[in-house]
Amino acid sequence: MDKEIVANYIKSAFAEVTLGEGIGLWQAQAIDDYETEAVQKRNRGRDEKEEWSRLSCEDLQRCHSSLSFFDAEGMRFHLPAYIVASLENQVDDPLFHLTQLNDYAKSKLTALNTVQRQAIVMYLTWCLDQAEYEFDHPAIRMALRQYWEK
Description:
150 residues, mainly alpha, 9 helices, DUF6714
């Protein structure tokens, strides 16, 4: 499977997603940094809320730890940006957040609809065909079997 096909499917599946009331990129970074609620709110003001495709690869990489602090809406908004940028080798992949699925991690994926879940399955399946992810193959297979393909 070609990575351009995967990227296009991700883009299509998440095309109309906005941040809504979800936790934004810079807001999540402030949470990670144990900032006050006032700083978190100020950071939310600089967050992209309408078009995930506008998020720069530099900001995504700089705020990679934000993946751990998104809520379900924030994850739905930011995940396609991380996946597409990782397919282009512009940011670290988000595999950990798609394969290490304890109850907290699963709670951040509840906003995904069926088509978006299928897009994630396509991405994970593509990763199984890549030698660079060989170390992750067992975790990917388990996540597919136990969560994504259900």
